[in-house]
């Protein structure tokens, strides 16, 4: 746990970096604790994420200080968040994500502007933590099936849920201070 905290602290202090791979790996470890899916599915999603991140890092036009892209995968559904300085680079990241095997769908939420500050990223991490805490404390909400991603005040909710579970998660997220909007990227069951 100490290593995860150190990685997250270092990662959040690196303003303008393209990827926070260490933080992503650490966050994946923390997420696995609360993720009630079979370990094989969690590992499959991590492989997809790693493959996309590796390709993005290898791309010289995307791997610059003016680009910040995060990759999140849940049940082979990919969420791209962050910032890039041109629509062409945004589309390029999208094409890279689509090129990875086993990707069912890509939600490209990358915005065209300079990278967010370390203060913004710290605030986003705090928002995510508050939402996850509220979800864990909410009776009847199966929060282990929901992944929360916050980027620049926008909260993205991913997972496999019922409509009632989705409504509860959205309501919790909307009430957290600093949340500007909530985007549902759920797969529904039941």
Unreliable stretches covering 5 or more consecutive residues: 1-33
How far is it from the N-terminal to the C-terminal residue, by CA?
36 Å
Please, what is the average pLDDT?
85
- C-alpha Rg, in Å? 16 Å
- Biggest beta-sheet profile: 3 strands, mixed
Count of DSSP helices?
Answer: 6
Strand elements, count: 6
Q: Describe the oligomeric state of these chains in a short phrase.
A: single chain
Widest sheet, order of strands = 1-2-3
How much strand?
A: 15-25%
User: What is the H/E string?
Assistant: HHHEEHEHEEHE
Label the structural class: alpha/beta
The helix fraction, in percent, is 40-55%
C-alpha geometry? globular
Describe the structure in your own words.
By secondary structure, the protein is an alpha/beta fold. It has 6 helices and 6 strands. The chain has helices at residues 2-12, 21-34, 39-58, 87-99, 118-137, 163-174; strands spanning 68-74, 77-84, 105-112, 146-151, 154-161, 181-188. The strands form 2 sheets. It has a 3-stranded mixed sheet. A 3-stranded mixed sheet has the order 4-5-6. β1 (68-74) and β2 (77-84) form a beta hairpin. α1 packs across α2. The longest helix is centred in the first third of the chain and has 20 residues, at 39-58. The radius of gyration is 16 Å and the shape is globular. It starts with a helix and ends with a strand.
